[in-house]
Amino acid sequence: MRRLKKTVVMVGMMGAGKTAVGTAVARALSVPFLDSDEEIVKAAQRSIAEIFERDGEAFFRARETEVLARLLRGAPCILSTGGGAFLSETNRKLVQEAGVSVWLRADLDLLWQRVRHKTTRPLLRTSNPRDTLRQLYEARVPVYSLAEIVVDSAADLSIDDMAAKVVAALALRKDVLEGE
Ligand SMILES: Nc1ncnc2c1ncn2[C@@H]1O[C@H](COP(=O)(O)OP(=O)(O)O)[C@@H](O)[C@H]1O
Ligand SMILES: O=C(O)C1=C[C@@H](OP(=O)(O)O)[C@@H](O)[C@H](O)C1
Ligand SMILES: [Mg+2]
Protein backbone atom coordinates (compact mmCIF):
# COMPACT_ATOMS: atom_id res chain seq x y z
CA MET A 1 0.00 0.00 0.00
CA ARG A 2 1.17 3.51 -0.79
CA ARG A 3 0.49 6.21 1.73
CA LEU A 4 0.42 9.93 0.99
CA LYS A 5 2.07 11.80 3.85
CA LYS A 6 1.76 15.40 2.65
CA THR A 7 -0.67 17.33 0.52
CA VAL A 8 0.54 17.61 -3.07
CA VAL A 9 -0.09 21.10 -4.41
CA MET A 10 -0.27 21.40 -8.19
CA VAL A 11 0.93 24.76 -9.51
CA GLY A 12 1.55 26.25 -12.94
CA MET A 13 -0.03 28.28 -15.69
CA MET A 14 -3.65 28.23 -16.81
CA GLY A 15 -3.98 25.25 -19.13
CA ALA A 16 -1.06 23.33 -17.62
CA GLY A 17 -3.46 20.59 -16.55
CA LYS A 18 -3.47 21.20 -12.79
CA THR A 19 -7.16 20.34 -12.49
CA ALA A 20 -7.21 17.46 -15.01
CA VAL A 21 -3.88 15.86 -14.05
CA GLY A 22 -4.47 16.47 -10.32
CA THR A 23 -7.75 14.55 -10.59
CA ALA A 24 -5.99 11.65 -12.31
CA VAL A 25 -3.16 11.59 -9.73
CA ALA A 26 -5.70 11.45 -6.89
CA ARG A 27 -7.51 8.59 -8.62
CA ALA A 28 -4.24 6.70 -9.15
CA LEU A 29 -3.30 7.06 -5.47
CA SER A 30 -6.87 6.61 -4.14
CA VAL A 31 -6.70 9.87 -2.20
CA PRO A 32 -9.09 12.84 -2.19
CA PHE A 33 -8.83 15.53 -4.86
CA LEU A 34 -9.55 19.17 -4.14
CA ASP A 35 -9.29 22.24 -6.35
CA SER A 36 -8.95 25.68 -4.77
CA ASP A 37 -10.95 27.30 -7.60
CA GLU A 38 -13.81 24.87 -7.02
CA GLU A 39 -13.78 25.54 -3.26
CA ILE A 40 -13.95 29.30 -3.87
CA VAL A 41 -16.83 28.87 -6.34
CA LYS A 42 -18.72 26.64 -3.92
CA ALA A 43 -18.40 29.11 -1.04
CA ALA A 44 -19.21 32.20 -3.12
CA GLN A 45 -22.01 30.48 -5.05
CA ARG A 46 -20.82 32.05 -8.28
CA SER A 47 -18.34 31.34 -11.05
CA ILE A 48 -14.70 32.50 -11.08
CA ALA A 49 -15.58 34.94 -13.88
CA GLU A 50 -18.47 36.39 -11.85
CA ILE A 51 -16.28 36.70 -8.75
CA PHE A 52 -13.64 38.65 -10.72
CA GLU A 53 -16.34 40.84 -12.26
CA ARG A 54 -18.41 41.59 -9.17
CA ASP A 55 -15.95 41.35 -6.29
CA GLY A 56 -12.61 41.98 -8.03
CA GLU A 57 -9.37 40.05 -8.24
CA ALA A 58 -8.19 41.14 -4.76
CA PHE A 59 -11.29 39.53 -3.21
CA PHE A 60 -10.62 36.34 -5.20
CA ARG A 61 -6.96 36.25 -4.07
CA ALA A 62 -7.97 36.70 -0.41
CA ARG A 63 -10.42 33.78 -0.69
CA GLU A 64 -7.69 31.74 -2.43
CA THR A 65 -5.30 32.21 0.51
CA GLU A 66 -8.04 31.27 3.01
CA VAL A 67 -8.89 28.13 1.07
CA LEU A 68 -5.24 27.06 0.78
CA ALA A 69 -4.65 27.60 4.51
CA ARG A 70 -7.78 25.61 5.39
CA LEU A 71 -7.12 22.71 3.04
CA LEU A 72 -3.45 22.46 3.98
CA ARG A 73 -4.53 21.95 7.61
CA GLY A 74 -6.58 18.92 6.56
CA ALA A 75 -5.66 15.35 5.71
CA PRO A 76 -3.17 14.81 2.85
CA CYS A 77 -4.79 15.11 -0.57
CA ILE A 78 -4.06 16.25 -4.09
CA LEU A 79 -4.77 19.97 -4.18
CA SER A 80 -4.85 21.78 -7.49
CA THR A 81 -4.57 25.54 -7.34
CA GLY A 82 -5.45 28.29 -9.78
CA GLY A 83 -2.57 29.60 -11.89
CA GLY A 84 -2.09 32.73 -9.76
CA ALA A 85 -2.04 31.07 -6.35
CA PHE A 86 1.70 30.33 -6.16
CA LEU A 87 2.54 33.96 -6.98
CA SER A 88 1.79 35.06 -3.43
CA GLU A 89 4.65 34.64 -0.97
CA THR A 90 2.14 33.96 1.81
CA ASN A 91 0.66 31.12 -0.23
CA ARG A 92 4.09 29.72 -1.09
CA LYS A 93 4.96 29.65 2.63
CA LEU A 94 1.70 27.83 3.45
CA VAL A 95 2.47 25.26 0.77
CA GLN A 96 6.09 24.83 1.82
CA GLU A 97 5.20 24.36 5.49
CA ALA A 98 2.51 21.75 5.08
CA GLY A 99 2.69 20.31 1.58
CA VAL A 100 4.84 19.74 -1.45
CA SER A 101 4.59 21.83 -4.61
CA VAL A 102 4.54 20.30 -8.09
CA TRP A 103 4.95 22.58 -11.10
CA LEU A 104 3.36 21.24 -14.26
CA ARG A 105 5.66 22.93 -16.75
CA ALA A 106 4.35 23.46 -20.26
CA ASP A 107 5.45 25.70 -23.10
CA LEU A 108 3.43 28.70 -24.18
CA ASP A 109 2.15 27.17 -27.43
CA LEU A 110 0.76 24.13 -25.64
CA LEU A 111 -0.89 26.30 -22.99
CA TRP A 112 -2.45 28.50 -25.64
CA GLN A 113 -3.87 25.48 -27.50
CA ARG A 114 -5.49 24.35 -24.26
CA VAL A 115 -7.05 27.67 -23.18
CA ARG A 116 -7.80 29.43 -26.47
CA HIS A 117 -11.36 28.17 -26.87
CA LYS A 118 -12.42 28.59 -23.25
CA THR A 119 -14.06 31.76 -21.95
CA THR A 120 -13.98 30.74 -18.30
CA ARG A 121 -10.69 32.45 -17.43
CA PRO A 122 -11.31 36.15 -16.67
CA LEU A 123 -7.63 37.16 -16.96
CA LEU A 124 -7.71 36.18 -20.64
CA ARG A 125 -10.73 38.33 -21.48
CA THR A 126 -8.57 40.95 -23.18
CA SER A 127 -8.31 42.25 -26.73
CA ASN A 128 -5.27 40.02 -27.34
CA PRO A 129 -5.54 36.97 -25.06
CA ARG A 130 -2.58 35.23 -26.73
CA ASP A 131 -0.32 38.13 -25.81
CA THR A 132 -1.82 38.38 -22.32
CA LEU A 133 -1.02 34.70 -21.79
CA ARG A 134 2.55 35.33 -22.97
CA GLN A 135 2.98 38.23 -20.54
CA LEU A 136 1.62 36.19 -17.63
CA TYR A 137 3.87 33.29 -18.66
CA GLU A 138 7.00 35.42 -18.73
CA ALA A 139 6.21 37.04 -15.38
CA ARG A 140 5.25 33.80 -13.65
CA VAL A 141 7.74 31.18 -14.83
CA PRO A 142 10.48 32.43 -12.46
CA VAL A 143 8.07 32.02 -9.56
CA TYR A 144 6.80 28.57 -10.57
CA SER A 145 10.42 27.49 -10.77
CA LEU A 146 10.53 27.81 -6.96
CA ALA A 147 8.35 24.69 -6.75
CA GLU A 148 9.96 21.63 -5.17
CA ILE A 149 9.11 19.21 -7.98
CA VAL A 150 8.91 19.97 -11.71
CA VAL A 151 7.07 17.72 -14.16
CA ASP A 152 7.34 18.51 -17.85
CA SER A 153 4.36 18.38 -20.19
CA ALA A 154 4.44 17.65 -23.89
CA ALA A 155 1.77 17.72 -26.56
CA ASP A 156 1.89 13.94 -26.95
CA LEU A 157 1.47 13.17 -23.24
CA SER A 158 -2.10 12.37 -22.22
CA ILE A 159 -3.62 13.36 -18.87
CA ASP A 160 -2.96 9.82 -17.60
CA ASP A 161 0.64 9.91 -18.92
CA MET A 162 1.18 13.13 -17.01
CA ALA A 163 -0.42 11.69 -13.87
CA ALA A 164 1.95 8.69 -14.10
CA LYS A 165 4.92 11.10 -14.35
CA VAL A 166 3.73 12.98 -11.29
CA VAL A 167 3.26 9.75 -9.29
CA ALA A 168 6.76 8.60 -10.31
CA ALA A 169 8.23 11.93 -9.16
CA LEU A 170 6.35 11.74 -5.84
CA ALA A 171 7.53 8.17 -5.29
CA LEU A 172 11.12 9.44 -5.23
CA ARG A 173 10.22 11.46 -2.15
CA LYS A 174 9.80 9.17 0.85
CA ASP A 175 8.65 12.14 2.93
CA VAL A 176 5.70 12.50 0.52
CA LEU A 177 4.74 9.04 -0.67
CA GLU A 178 5.48 5.95 1.39
CA GLY A 179 5.35 2.30 0.32
CA GLU A 180 5.12 0.48 -3.00
N1 LIG B 1 -1.98 16.13 -20.79
C1 LIG B 1 -3.08 16.59 -21.38
N2 LIG B 1 -3.44 16.12 -22.58
C2 LIG B 1 -4.54 16.57 -23.18
N3 LIG B 1 -5.36 17.53 -22.69
C3 LIG B 1 -5.04 18.04 -21.50
C4 LIG B 1 -3.90 17.60 -20.77
N4 LIG B 1 -3.84 18.30 -19.63
C5 LIG B 1 -4.91 19.13 -19.63
N5 LIG B 1 -5.64 18.96 -20.74
C6 LIG B 1 -6.86 19.71 -21.12
O1 LIG B 1 -6.48 21.09 -21.18
C7 LIG B 1 -7.50 21.90 -20.61
C8 LIG B 1 -6.93 22.67 -19.44
O2 LIG B 1 -6.64 21.76 -18.39
P1 LIG B 1 -6.92 22.12 -16.87
O3 LIG B 1 -6.72 20.88 -16.08
O4 LIG B 1 -8.20 22.84 -16.72
O5 LIG B 1 -5.71 23.13 -16.60
P2 LIG B 1 -5.46 24.11 -15.38
O6 LIG B 1 -6.30 23.62 -14.22
O7 LIG B 1 -3.99 23.97 -15.12
O8 LIG B 1 -5.82 25.46 -15.88
C9 LIG B 1 -8.64 20.95 -20.23
O9 LIG B 1 -9.56 20.91 -21.29
C10 LIG B 1 -7.95 19.62 -20.06
O10 LIG B 1 -8.79 18.51 -20.29
O1 LIG C 1 -3.81 32.19 -13.58
C1 LIG C 1 -4.64 32.76 -12.84
O2 LIG C 1 -4.39 33.80 -12.21
C2 LIG C 1 -5.98 32.14 -12.71
C3 LIG C 1 -6.14 30.82 -13.07
C4 LIG C 1 -7.42 30.10 -12.98
O3 LIG C 1 -7.20 28.73 -12.63
P1 LIG C 1 -6.54 27.66 -13.65
O4 LIG C 1 -5.06 27.89 -13.63
O5 LIG C 1 -6.92 26.34 -13.08
O6 LIG C 1 -7.15 27.92 -15.00
C5 LIG C 1 -8.32 30.76 -11.92
O7 LIG C 1 -7.80 30.58 -10.63
C6 LIG C 1 -8.45 32.24 -12.20
O8 LIG C 1 -9.07 32.40 -13.45
C7 LIG C 1 -7.10 32.95 -12.16
MG1 LIG D 1 -7.71 24.47 -12.93
Automatic annotation (TrEMBL):
It catalyses: shikimate + ATP = 3-phosphoshikimate + ADP + H(+). GO terms for molecular function: shikimate kinase activity. Catalyzes the specific phosphorylation of the 3-hydroxyl group of shikimic acid using ATP as a cosubstrate. Mg(2+) binds at T19. ATP binds at G15, A16, G17, K18, T19, A20, R121. The gene is aroK. It comes from Fuscovulum ytuae. InterPro entries: P-loop_NTPase, Shikimate/glucono_kinase, Shikimate_kinase/TSH1, Shikimate_kinase_CS. This is Shikimate kinase. Pathway: Metabolic intermediate biosynthesis; chorismate biosynthesis; chorismate from D-erythrose 4-phosphate and phosphoenolpyruvate: step 5/7. Its cofactor is Mg(2+). Pfam families: SKI. Its EC number is 2.7.1.71. It is an enzyme of class 2 (transferase). Substrate binds at D37, R61, G83, R140. It is found in: Cytoplasm. The keyword Iron does not apply. Monomer. It comes from the Bacteria. Transmembrane segments: none annotated.
